[in-house]
Design a protein that fits this description.
It is a single chain. This protein is α+β, with helices and mostly antiparallel strands. It is built from seven helices and eight strands, in the order E-E-E-H-E-E-H-H-H-E-E-E-H-H-H. Among the domains are: about 80 residues, Nucleic acid-binding proteins (OB fold (Dihydrolipoamide Acetyltransferase, E2P)); about 60 residues, de novo design (two linked rop proteins) (Up-down Bundle), CATH 1.20.1440. The chain has a five-stranded mixed barrel with strand order 1-2-3-5-4. Strands 7-6-8 form a three-stranded antiparallel β-sheet. A hairpin with a 3-residue loop joins strand 2 and strand 3. Helix 2 runs antiparallel to helix 3, helix 2 runs antiparallel to helix 7 and helix 3 runs antiparallel to helix 4.
């Protein structure tokens, strides 16, 4: 039985050449999550479809097919195309790569879709870049079931003490450091209680808190990304060095 998805809000996460003139496209759809589809003829020079299948642009897509791999039968997009540049472009690529690496096919995440959309809108605007990235990373972890309690000690259940130090265990949470805290200095998994509590208040623009949040989300995501490096991060580092 052929499954048809009509006029589904979606964003392009990734494209790659397919056969002679087509594209293989990973979409992030509002109700259906990550879907892979063939865009037939999209690589032809005068293809209108190719012009529309750009990342970070809101689309309406119609997809059909019997198997997991669908066929793109129609796509609609806005006439006004907004281009990300510089650091914000690499940040958008990073968000897309996280979704491609971590989302399973055909599992809907409507709330995560809304979070992604807000992040893309923020990248097109002038919102603080670090806040955009950290908020999305935390929402992604929560949506995939990899989130952790940011209010209570994972071993005792006691509220996080802003004046104490805690060790972070991915997928589990924060364990208060017992004994002499000096023994843990230099451990990247060590966080202050005040920094942890800041994660629950839409993140602070304080540089120390921002750096702690970046270190935390990187550790939490790495547990699920594995050893394969993120291409977007490597491209960003090369761009900074050039």
């Amino acid at each position: 039985m052929t499954t048809r998805i009509d006029l589904q809000p979606a964003y392009v996460l990734h494209t790659q050449p397919f056969q002679n003139t087509s594209l293989l496209v990973d979409f992030f759809c509002l109700d259906h999550g990550r879907i892979r589809a063939v865009a037939k003829g999209a690589r032809r020079p005068k293809s209108r479809t190719r012009a529309l299948l750009q990342p970070f642009q809101p689309l309406l897509v119609t997809l059909a097919g019997r198997a997991e791999l669908k066929t793109l039968t129609a796509v609609e997009g806005s006439v006004n195309v907004f281009n990300l540049q510089g650091t914000r472009l690499f940040s958008g690529m990073y968000l897309n790569e996280l979704l491609v690496r971590l989302l399973l096919f055909n599992e809907g995440h409507p709330e995560l879709y809304q979070s992604y959309q807000q992040a893309i809108i923020g990248l097109h605007g002038d919102r603080d870049l670090q806040q955009i990235l950290r908020c999305f990373e935390l929402e992604l972890l929560d949506a995939l079931g990899y989130g952790f309690n940011r209010e209570d000690d994972c071993t005792t259940g006691q509220p996080i003490d802003p004046d104490a130090l805690y060790l972070f265990h991915p997928d589990v949470g924060f364990e208060r450091v017992a004994g002499h805290a000096e023994a843990h200095v230099g451990n990247p998994a060590l966080f202050s209680g005040s920094d942890i509590l800041s994660l629950g208040s839409n993140l602070s623009d304080d540089r120390v808190v921002s750096n702690a949040a970046r270190r935390l989300t990187r550790m939490a995501l790495q547990a699920h990304l594995g050893d394969k490096p993120l291409v977007s991060r490597e491209l960003f580092l090369k761009q900074r060095e050039s």
